[in-house]
Structures are given as structure tokens and as C-alpha cells.
Amino acid sequence: MPRPVLISLAGLGVIAVVCVIAWLYLRRRRKWEVGVALAAVAVVVAFGLPVLAKPIEDAWSPVTDGKQPEIAELAPPVPPPGQPKPAIGPGWGPPRQLFTLSHPATYSTFNSITDNSFYGDERSFYRVRHSAQDCKESSSPWRNHEKIAEGDYLAFQVFVENSAADSLDKDGSHTVRNLRLKINFPALVGDPKTGSAGQAETSAVLTAENANPDAYWFVVLLSSDSAVRLDLVPGRNRLLTNHFSPDGLEVPDSFLHAPGLQLGFDKLDGRLRPGYYYALYLSFCMKVTKAAA
Length: 293
Known about the structure:
Blueprint: H1 3-28, H2 32-64, E1 91-93, E2 126-131, E3 145-148, E4 153-160, E5 180-184, E6 188-189, E7 198-207, E8 215-224, E9 228-232, E10 238-240, E11 249-250, E12 261-262, E13 280-290
Parallel strand pairs: 3-8
Antiparallel strand pairs: 1-8, 2-4, 4-13, 5-7, 5-12, 6-9, 7-8, 9-13, 10-11, 10-13
Helix pairs in contact: 1-2
């Protein structure tokens, strides 16, 4: 039987019981006028219940069903980086169960909290913005799609967080192992032979042995009005955690090469416990120059 009908029948039953008790009480005290008024009110409420049943059902169904409210998608998921004919544009993957601050995961998974009060939707864990020449100062907002040109300096950032509830890791069972980051980065944007405009993707891919799923990615889109090349700025690769603060730990550029760079909270050992205290950021900087024909 539909839930609105059940709500209506249950409400009518409660109203009937209350009205009978009230009518018997008022009859003994000879208050007929009050009894008639009570009966009229009961009739109005009874006819209004079916109208109210649907809103009541909609409001309470997430609680009574034991389900979380649906969360709007950040962007359409995209196939894994490197798959033939990938879609050009920012996007995330793989499709996975999502969580909130009040209902974190019960197993090890990465960047799956959608209402991080500081960062926002963690599926968007790779981002870019324009930076000063030293790649240390910037007032530009972080973006998933950036227009670039010759002479620009671009700061890139990867956010990593084990989304399991930190209370579950007292025995270390929810600490991930062999956590690695691989950045797929284009050497060129546009066609150097013609100098024409173009677009290119760069993607960050996280992998770990005992996470579910075991691989995560986010794709950032770069576009230019002319052909340009991008080169890593030496000495600007930083891993920032609550252990490596405030300046962070300088790391090698192995995140640009297979199999990627092992990450970690206090050492590059591939281990990461759940909870925001252990979350980490990896940043690097690229210089944009004119592409040689």
C-alpha cells in the first residue's frame, strides 16, 4: 500500500479515537455545542490528511528509509585518463558512493566527502590557478578550467583525504597503504606547427592497495589562444601536511612519471590514516612559454 495512504489511514484512526474519547467526556458534561465543534474540526482534519500525507512522506522518507539525501553531481564522471578518445573537459571518476561530514565512510576511500566546510566537494581534488613568478603568491581563485598564455606561471594543487571515520582506525585497519600520485601532464597546448589555439587535459590519479575503489582521478582543462609549452619550475614541488608545516616538504618530480610518487603524512611511505588531521596537499608550478615550431 502506498505510504501516503498509510499515513492518511493512521491519522484518521488516531483522530477517531481522540474524538470518541472527547465526545464521551463532553456528553457527560452536557456540552453539546463543544462536541459539535470538535466533530467539525475532526472532519476538516480528516479530509486534509490525504493532502498533507505526500509532503510528510517526502520529508521523512530519508529518515525512515535509512538513506542519505541525494547530493547533486559535481560534473559528469569521465573515463580513466589514457582511455582512447577521452572526453575533453574537467571531470572526475570513478563513480562511487559519496559521504558527508556527519556521515563519513565506514571503509577506506579517498576524496568522497561532498560538504567539506573548508575545501568543498572533495571529488574536485585537482585544481589550478595563475600565480606570481615565484609560484608562492597568488590571489587568483582555484579553477578546474584555466585559460593560459605565454609568460604565465600556473600553480597546481592536489588534495588527498582518507574519507573513513577516524574513530574506526584505532587498530590501523583503515590506514591505506602504497598511496601513490601520478600526474598526467601535456607538454604542449595547441599546434606548434601552425601556432594555432588548442585545449589539453591534465589529470591527477590516486591509487592505493586497500582503498575502495583503488584508483581515483580528476581532470583539469587548459586552453590557449596560441601554441604554448609547459615546463616544471624546479624547487617548487611541495607536500604540505600538519607534520610538514608551514613550509612543506620538498619532493621530487616523480609524480610526473610512472608509477608515481608515494605520499604520506610524516614520511613518503604510502600510508595515510583517515581524518582531516592527516589530510595532505601536494603542489607544483608550471611555466608557460611559446611552443617552438
